[in-house]
Description:
Blueprint lengths: L12 H26 L29 H20 L14 H24 L3 H6 L1 H14 L1 H4 L23 H10 L1 E5 L7 H14 L6 H8 L3 H7 L25 H10 L1 E5 L3 H17 L18 H6 L6
Antiparallel strand pairs: 1-2
Helix pairs in contact: 1-2, 3-12, 5-12, 7-12, 8-9, 8-11
Amino acid sequence: xxxxxxxxxxxxxxxxxxxxxxxxxxxxxxxxxxxxxxxxxxxxxxxxxxxxxxxxxxxxxxxxxxxxxxxxxxxxxxxxxxxxxxxxxxxxxxxxxxxxxxxxxxxxxxxxxxxxxxxxxxxxxxxxxxxxxxxxxxxxxxxxxxxxxxxxxxxxxxxxxxxxxxxxxxxxxxxxxxxxxxxxxxxxxxxxxxxxxxxxxxxxxxxxxxxxxxxxxxxxxxxxxxxxxxxxxxxxxxxxxxxxxxxxxxxxxxxxxxxxxxxxxxxxxxxxxxxxxxxxxxxxxxxxxxxxxxxxxxxxxxxxxxxxxxxxxxxxxxxxxxxxxxxxx
Length: 329
Ligand code: HEC
Ligand code: HEC
């Protein structure tokens, strides 16, 4: 039985019984030890027995009974342990009569905080993302969320770094319209390119120069010419013209925005080794409200695109159809 982490994963009943027995026997043994050491009292007039000869001039050890305060403290701790093991998990896989688990407690606390947060965010939830992004309060909250959950990869200003895309430049791997950004954040993204498609390092360098040429950047013309044919292996994803495909996460290789670097060496490395970037999905951890706010914040960083307008609905003229002759049976 595995419910989250509510129950420790004992691989077999043997280990459960082993741990439970060791715990219980340990407590009972300590009770016995304590009792056996505290029942003997000094008879009236009896002096404590001297255990050892004298050390260091005048240091002596007597067999006195344990002090009462110490003994009660020990009993109290043992009983506390027993009560604890009855109420809470601790004895093997016995869950305790209160059925407490750290996972449940975490969930309860998270739900409580989320409920408070959602209350604060309610006014923004119904609103269009572009309207939210223009709201200064939402922007401030979005920025704090971004600094907490996103900045370690995308940078505190959202400009990214090698391997982590710039979210402010208007060049998108997966689209910059509000819905695209929201999907990137909510569900995560994985972009993967296999390595070695242009043969050896020399082939990769040639294709890299062809890529630089496609983007109108400084390149070695002879190498680019040699790389042209090899680029056929790339065109399926990045397009004949190198402009990629936003919807599929295939980057544009002709613009000034690079996830892994745009020098000849960096492009060659991308081609030789392949690349795999992963954007972790946030919906489960952050919830709808925070994702909504973060989307508005990212959209408002300056690179956001206008949402794609839905295709206008063209009224169908039924009359034209009705006038057509019925197909022969
Ligand atoms: C199967 C599809 C596919 C093929 C084929 C492919 N790529 Fe890619 N390429 C991608 C994806 C996806 C990424 C982005 C990886 C990521 O998001 O981490 C990428 C990234 C790159 C990058 C890094 C871009 C940047 O912004 O830093 C370069 C350069 C590149 N590809 C060049 C090539 C060349 C040249 C070829 C042909 C030899 C090629 N690719 C073949 C899918 C492909
Ligand atoms: C562990 C690092 C990491 C974290 C944390 C992270 N991201 Fe990302 N993010 C990435 C990577 C890597 C990509 C590019 C994926 C790829 O290469 O295909 C990406 C892509 C994106 C994209 C799509 C960019 C495009 O060009 O289409 C958006 C939007 C985004 N992240 C927003 C966020 C937000 C908002 C957060 C905070 C909730 C966040 N990311 C947290 C690593 C991260």
